[in-house]
Every structure is written in structure tokens, then in C-alpha cells.
Amino acid sequence: SSHGTTMMTRIAIHISIVASLAATIHAVRFVHAGATTIYSFSLKPEELPPHRPPSSRGGKGRGRLPPPAAFASPSIPPPPPISVPVWSLAAPMGESPHDDAARRPTETGTSMNIVTFATPVSVAPPKLWVVSLYTDTLTRRAFLDSKVGVLQLLTPEQKVLVPILGKRSGYEGGFSKRGECAKLDKGDKFRWVSAAMDGESPSDALISKDDGSSAASMDLLPGCASYIKLKLLSVIQAGDHDVALCEVAGTGVWNEEFCCIVQDFGAAASVPRDSNTVLYTGLLRSEGII
């Protein structure tokens, strides 16, 4: 009948319109979490038709699509602060291709800082660690040039060193991290000591003349909870930091009798390391140091 033909024609027209819209608009998706609405269109913003978001208030919800900037994902909040051990990295300094007249280091022999993160990444030998290094630091430059360094695990008493080692730069004119550490009113507790021992020192010293002149020229902090000798393997860029993959070349402990760092052959490794013996970032936060 003519009525049936008319209905079929109308249905065909509607199908054609729907197919055309489906080809133009790939997806329209509304996610209502608070005031968030996510859209995905192939049309240009100025070509978008008026849009009524779902609303229980009738016509009061009518409006146009927000500008393109509103489509951007909200900024990701930072992860919760986790209390982690505080490490200082010491690296030998020498002539560097990165030196220039405008930024010559004020320190000589050793550069030392507080690393952002340091953690083991392997279990079976070779033991591998990664160290996160802020890019614009003298210690990073020294470590990448020399490819050797020593991680020093700080103790709670050494928290006073963090502002010196972590908040100041070896590039600052007239400023010496070595000198500032020595000025602290703790006798010789914070005075840097030579990493390489002479013939009168114990034969199991962590750093010896056999490690080469570069490593032997280093100074280290006395009395740390632990020491890890590193050899740099590779570096990858990671935003405002470099991630250094390192092989553990030895571990050491402080020897009070000889006032030097000696190799750790396993006895010290069995001693628990907790907030009583190791400095954690949680303590630094609670005291407003970081």
C-alpha cells in the first residue's frame, strides 16, 4: 500500500542519516565523575552542533561544547610520598670535556651529593643497581666521566649533611661541601676521609690503589651505615634525571679502629637496617629538611 511504501521510504531516509552521522562522528562518550565530560569527535570544534548533556533539569542543561583545551586530561596527582633510605653518591673528579669557563667546579678530588633514588634491580650476579641523578649536578658529571663511584647509606645522625650535600651545588663559587661538612660541630664525625688506604691500612679496604688513580683519589664520609662501590654500565635519560645502571663492584662498612671503609664479607649484611640505624626520607620530611 501507499502507506507502507511511505513508511519504508522514511525508514530508509533515517538509516541513511544515521549511517552518515556514524561515518562523521567516531565516538561520543560521556563520563560523569564530578564535572568531567570526555568527547571524541572528528569534526572541528567550530563545526560542532549544540549539545545537551544528560540532565535531570530539562532545558537548563543546554549548552555548547567546551573549547578544545577542556578536553585535556586532568593533571596526574603525585604518588604518595614513601619513606626510603637516603644515599649519598661520591664520585672522583678530573678533567672533563664538559668543563667551561662559566661553570668550573669549586671542589677538587671528589664530588658528593644526595641521590634522588637508588635501588637494586637484580638478584643473581652480577648485582645491578640503578641510581637516579638530577641532570644539572656536578656529581652526575663526575660519575658519568669517571664511571666509578661509591654509594653511602647515611645514618640518622648524618641528617645534618643533607642540606649541604643535597641542596647546594659544587658549581657555586666560594662554596665547598667538603669544608662545610668539616665545620659542623661534631669533631671529625663529618670530616671526609680518604677512600684509598696506604700500606698501613687493612688489606681488605673497600678502595685500594688497585682500583686505579681515579677511584683512589676519592674521599668518603666516615661512619655511614653501608658503602656500595659502583661501576657505571649505561645511562638513559628520564625527564629531569638520568637513570644510571650500575654493577656492584664491592660493599663496605666503616671500621672505627682504622678509621677507614673496609670490605663487607657478609657479617654486616646480616645486621638489620631500620630507622634506628639508617636515615630515611620520612624523618627528613617530619623535621622539615625536605
Automatic annotation (TrEMBL):
Disordered: annotated span: 44-77
Domain Flavin reductase like, first and last residues per copy: 114-253
Organism annotation: Odontella aurita
Protein name: Flavin reductase like domain-containing protein
Top-rank taxon: Eukaryota
Source organism phylogeny: Eukaryota, Sar, Stramenopiles, Ochrophyta, Bacillariophyta
Single GO term (MF): FMN binding
InterPro entries on file: Flavin_Rdtase-like_dom (IPR002563), Split_barrel_FMN-bd (IPR012349)
Signal peptide annotation: none
Biased composition (Pro residues): 65-77
Gene3D superfamilies noted in UniProt: Electron Transport, Fmn-binding Protein, Chain A
Pfam families noted in UniProt: Flavin_Reduct (PF01613)
